[in-house]
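Lab manual, section 2.4: Encoding a predicted structure.

Procedure: take the sequence of the chain (511 residues), apply the prediction step described in section 2.3, and record the output as C-alpha cells. A sample record is shown.
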Amino acid sequence: MALIKSLRPRAALPLHPHPRLLTRLQSTASASPSPKISAVPFRLSPSEAAHKLHMNALVASAQPLNLIYAGLLKVFGPGIAPIAREFGLGESLKMGEVKACYWPVWRCDAIAEGKVEVRGSGKEGKGWLGVKEGYVPGNAFAPLSYLSYAVPPLPDDLPRYNPTKHLRQLGDDTEIVAVPFTVSPMAVIKRIRYLVGRRTWEGIRLDERDWQETMVACYPLFFPIYLAQFEHTLGDSNRVFTVVLDAHDENVNHCRASWPAPPEMIERGRFNNNYYVNPAPFLPTSTFILPSRPPISSSESSDSSPAPSPSPILSTPSHAHSNPAEIFSSWLSPGPSSPTIIRPSPLLEIETDEEGNEVPIEWDDPRIQSWSGEERAENWEWFEKAVEVHKGIAALEGLAELSAQLPEGADPKGMVISTTPGQKTNFAPRPMSEIRRQLANDVERMKGELEEGKPGWLRRFERGSTGEEAEVQEVHEVQEVQEGEKGEEGPKSGESGEALEKAIGEERKGE
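Recorded output:
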C-alpha cells in the first residue's frame, strides 16, 4: 500500500520531477491481481534504449551543441561518442538512473448513444459515439499518466501477465518495475458523465442522463517503457527531467520517446498544450455522429471552435479544433499551468472515495476482459458493424431532410455507385425516392445483422444473468430469429431485421 500512496501526489508538482522519482516506482506484488491482465513483452534491449534516451535528452535540452551531438549520434551511432567528447559536445548533460518499467494501461472499446437537442430548431435527434482502442491510464501518477502509450496494432496473443516471468525477462542485471493498477475505467466513465452534465456543444444540447453505454469492453495491459533521469547544466542553473521511451518493438525507430518541453519554450507559449512534446493520442480512432444542424455563431457556441461542417459524422484521426477526441486528451493530459508546475492528474479524484479510501477495481466485472480472449475479436467485429449501421442511419436522415426542402412532388435523381470486387465500378442515376427506399431496407437489414451478431457476453450482461441459464437463453433467441427469417420466397431486404426485433421482443416479454 505504501507504493500506491506514494504514487498519488495530491498537489501540483514541480515541473521537472525530483531525481528520486524513479526510485519511488517499486514493485510490491508477487502475483498478478487478475488473470485478465496481459503483458506486452520488452522487445528493446537496455543498451538500445539508453542510446535513444540519450539522443532525445540532448534534443530536450534545447542547447545548440547538444542538438548537433544528437544529430551525430543519429547518423553515426554511439561510436561517435569518444570523438564528440573531445570537442566538448554533450558535456552539459548527465544521464542518471535508468529504469525498465511496466506501466498499467487500459485499452477500451466503447459505444454510447442517446438523445440530443438541436439548438435553435427545437428538434430532437440521436447522437452516437464509438471508440475503438481508446486509452485510459491504469494509474494516476503524473506526469507518466499524461502519456497514452498508443502504438500500432499489438499482437493478438499477448501472454497473461506473470510477475515471476515478466519482471525477469531482461536478465538479473536489469530490474523491471511493475506499477500497480489503481484506476478503474468504469470510474472514468462515471467521472466523464459527471463532467459532461448538461451543456451545449457545437450547437447541440447534451444531457448525460439521456445517454447510455451500449457496449464497454476494457483490456488491462502492462506496457513496457524505459525511463531515464537527466540533469542539464547551463551556467548556474540545473534542470532535471525524465525521458520516457516505449519498448514494445525490436526496431527502436518504432518506439516513441517523450520528454517535457524546456521551461523557456513554455514561457514563449510553445508546447503549452501538453506536458510532453511528443504525445500520442488517447483516442486514435473514434466516430461521433450527430444530427445535422444549422451553422452557429460565435456568440451561440459554448467554445471558440469554428462552425461545424455540414457532415453529421466526425471521425478521427482529425485535426479539427475541439473534437471529442481532443477534448478527452486535453482532460487526461493537461498542459503545464506554469513553467515550473505539473498539474495533478484528473484521475486522482476517482482513485479514492470522499474519505480518502482506495476505490478497488472490480476485476470480476464482465466488461473487463483479457486482450488475448476471444471476446475482443467479437467486440471489434460488432463495433465495425455498429459504425456502418449508424452511418447508414445518419445518411438516411440527411436524405429525409433534403427531401423535405424540395418542392412537393419533386423527385430528383442521384448517382448510385456500385462496386463489386474484380469488376468495373458502375455508376447509375436513380430517383431519390428509390435511393431512400433502398437505403432504408439496407439499414433495417444491417440492424438485424447487428443484433444477431451481438457478442454473447454482452447479451448476458444486458440481461444481468450469467452462467448456463444465460447460454440457454442466447441459443433460444438465435433459434427464434433464424426461424423467423425462413419463408417460401426467402426474406426480403429489411425483413430479417423485423423478424429479429419481433423475436427479441417476444423473448423479453417472456422474461
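Check your result against the sample. The CA atoms of residues 139 and 182 lie 5 Å apart.
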